[in-house]
């Protein structure tokens, strides 16, 4: 019987670049410190911090950070709810200099 690692963050393979390590480290620091005070009120699965960790690990600090910011914006009052996974790959039109295009990923049509 294989042992399944328990944990709240994504455990898939990702490149350990300095930006990704910094970003995932900040998310983990938030999870260990402030998350307990704010409460478990995320309307999505995975939670916003789990989403941020995976988005940064998969897509880097810049694109993953923007994906995370837009996800937190969707989580507020009047926002979306349900399952909203991080995309495995991003379309080539989603270039670094146009982060506003990332806001359409996830949300209502993808729950």
UniProtKB/TrEMBL annotation:
It comes from the Bacteria. This is Putative membrane protein insertion efficiency factor. It comes from Hoeflea algicola. The keyword Cell membrane applies. Keywords: Cell membrane, Membrane. It is a peripheral membrane protein. Could be involved in insertion of integral membrane proteins into the membrane. Belongs to the UPF0161 family. It is found in: Cell membrane. Its main location: membrane.
